[in-house]
Structure formats: C-alpha cells, structure tokens
UniProtKB/TrEMBL annotation:
This is soluble epoxide hydrolase. Gene3D superfamilies: alpha/beta hydrolase (3.40.50.1820). Residues 25-131 form the AB hydrolase-1 domain. Its EC number is 3.3.2.10. GO terms for molecular function: epoxide hydrolase activity. Epoxide hydrolase involved in the biosynthesis of cucurbitacin and mogroside tetracyclic triterpene natural products (e.g. siamenoside I and mogrosides IV, V and VI). Cucurbitacins have cytotoxic properties and exhibit deterrent taste as a defense barrier against herbivores. Mogrosides are nonsugar highly oxygenated compounds used as high-intensity zero-calorie sweeteners; they also possess pharmacological properties such as regulating immunity, lowering blood sugar and lipid levels, protecting the liver, and acting as antioxidants and antitumor agents. The keyword Hydrolase applies. It comes from Arabidopsis lyrata subsp. lyrata. The keyword Electron transport does not apply.
Amino acid sequence: MEKIEHTTVSTNGINMHVASIGSGPVILFLHGFPDLWYSWRHQLLSFAALGYRAIAPDLRGYGDSDAPPSRESYTILHIVGDLVGLLNSLGVDRVFLVGHDWGAIVAWWLCMIRPDRVNALVNTSVVFNPRNPSVKPVDAFRALFGDDYYICRFQEPGEIEEDFAQVDTKKLITRFFISRNPRPPCIPKSVGFRGLPDPPSLPAWLTEEDVSFYGDKFSQKGFTGGLNYYRALNLSWELTAPWAGLQIKVPVKFIVGDLDITYNIPGTKEYIHEGGLKKHVPFLQEVVVLEGVGHFLHQEKPDEITDHIYGFFKKFRTRETASL
C-alpha cells in the first residue's frame, strides 16, 4: 500500500482525494456506500503490476474529499461532473471504467452522458435501470418495500446519522460488509441499526486493519456525504429527464454475486438474463454471476474480480488513447 500515491485534485468546485499507482492505460475505479477508494486496494496494486495506471478517488462526500453539506449537491450530474473534471485535470482523455454499488450507478451515467471519455466498462452489483418517467425512484422503493426499506430510512436528514452514532463505527462498517442476507434490508425505526446483533467474526477477506481504516475515516468524516446520494435520488430523477430513453453505448461486462441484495430484488434476475438489460445496454458482452458471493464482491473475491476485469479490458486495449 505504501506504493500507492495520494493527491488532491480540484474539480467541479470541490477538492477530491485520489489514490493512484502504475503507468499505462488508465483504469478509473469508482466506489459505493459505505466505502472509500480503499475498497479497490487489491485491484490498484494488481493492475499497476499488469501495466495500467489505476486511479481510485474518494467520491464527493467521502474520505479525504470535500463533503458539501447540502443534499442538493449530490445529484448524479454533480458526481459525473466531478469525474469529468478529474479526468481533465489529470490530462486523461479516455479511461477504462469500473464501478461498484453507487460507483456503478455513477459509471452507468458517465457512460451515458460522456461515452467519449470511456473505452469500456466493467460494472458490478447494480444494473442499469432506465429512468421511469412516471414515478420517482424513492417513491418506487417505498411502494415496493415500505417505509422501513433502507433507502427510505435514509431520506430524513440527521435521523439515520443519529442512529449510526449509537453504534461503534467499526461494528457498523463490519455489519454492512459481511452481510450474507440477500433479502431487501428493512430496518424498523423501533429497532434501528443500533438494535441489530453484533457482527460475527471477520471473514478471511476482511482484516482488523481494513475495518480500522474504514472506521477511522468514517468517524472523522461522518456518513452524511454518502447518505446524501440517496437523498438526492428524486432530484437526480428530475434533472435527468433530458436523457430519458438513451442507451448505454460502450462495451460492457456486468458482474454480480448471487447473494447480493441487488440481484435478489424482485424482477432483477429476469431483467438481466431475459434481455431487459441488453435492450438498454446494447453493447453488453458478458454477464457473470458469482456463486456464494455477497455485495462487496471486489473485496471478497479480489483476484477473481481482477481476472474478470483484465480479461475484458485487454480486448479493447489497442483502442485506448489515455495514459499517465
């Protein structure tokens, strides 16, 4: 880890912390919630050794990047704008792109809005869902799963932060990371995250050092920045109306674990495997479902994920135009 470089880049009105290593074609890794650049630690080192320049920022609101206080500052257009500004600041024209969780959502939209900046995409966990013109996303989740669904619980500013504050941060992070329950996470207010049982012993892929890194960063920064992505969902829906109906037109590989809650949302498996995703992502070339793997697949199975990414991107490497 000591070989990874850490810099701060000014982009789109914020200061963004960026971890990077290696030289060659650029791969941009995007993390999700509750995560940091650190979630890609294995892939950064692996791809540097494979002849790539691997870059993983702390997204807006996370880690050592700035965290504007207003939820209105976390729309998908803000986040995509941050990344375009980052690439411009680094002098990078095009990248290979990898996303996970919220990073996957951002990656889909970066490919839709600025396909000229992306050579190919490997996305994980969260499929592309086209904009529904008749219902806002939070309203759709509420109708499907009820008020206790975690995304609905995250909407009221300060409420879930108070709940989180009653739990040791390291224990909270561990609960998120090692969950193997594929059912929709519903947390009644009467129970809260504070009322969940303590997590079991750490799996082999997650060390005490890892948990301490996350715990220290989130103890310093808080969770509000990351929660504001969820709180801006409906505003993002309003602002992205001009792109309704557009397809994702870059080469794509999609990877998900069969124990991932996102894969087990009703209708998702059919959407992925019966042509729905291909309709909206016409250059989708591969879909991989990892058996017995949960949501944080790139940490749980780092070597396997690296192999999948490398095998896909090497097919397009001759097309790349960007390197550092």
